[in-house]
Amino acid sequence: MKILVFSDSHGVTDKMETALAEHRGTVDAVIHLGDGAGDLMRCAVPEGAAVIAVSGNFEDFFSAFAPQDYPSERIAEFGGVRILCTHGHRYGVKSSVTKAVARAAEAGAALLLFGHTHRPLDTSEVLPSGEILRIFNPGTAGHGYPSSYGIVEIRDGQILTSHRYF
Predict the structure, then answer these.
(1) Which of 39, 56, 79, 144 has minimal Cβ neighbours within 10 Å of its Cβ?
(2) What is the three-class DSSP state of 124?
């Protein structure tokens, strides 16, 4: 199971198009973590790939002018792994991932995917239950910082994550 993860594209689609073309034929799902969730819908997503998009603060702001159909978070399951997908702004991820981690634990997730900071992150945390939560931010698929996206592979229940830079 291979998942491409994007966030914070802010209207930029060319980088996502490049990544989608590079992985065409090998992608099972594509996730956009907000602040440009609609950008993904303008890209050539591989046929048959599941698509998940959540709203970010960008979508929240513009929803006052044009209604958005993106939830603030989604729980998905791929390859037997439960994933919490969120932009992260509602959990204050720019200062700490503590609230987002607590929400992921509450949801029974093994993987927390979030954006908002525009900075790639790949780490793990042991939850009070003893379970290990993988925490992953793909960075920004837009301008600023080194642009990047994430690849999540799930093999026999194991979560493998990596960043690719544009």
Answers:
(1) 144
(2) strand
Quote the CA–CA distance of 145 and 134 in Å, as a whole number.
23
Q: How far apart are CA 41 and CA 135, in angstroms?
A: 25
Q: Tally the residues of the chain.
A: 166
- Each residue of 37-96: pLDDT tens digit? 999 989 999 999 999 999 999 887 766 555 567 899 999 999 999 999 999 999 999 999
Answering whether pTM is above 0.70, one says yes
Q: Which CATH architecture has domain 2-165?
A: 4-Layer Sandwich (3.60)
- The answer for residues whose C-beta is within 8 angstroms of residue 144's C-beta and 6 or more apart is 118
Burial pattern 51-89, b for ≥16 Cβ within 10 A else e, equals ebbbbbebbbeeeeeeebebeebbebebbebebbbbbbb
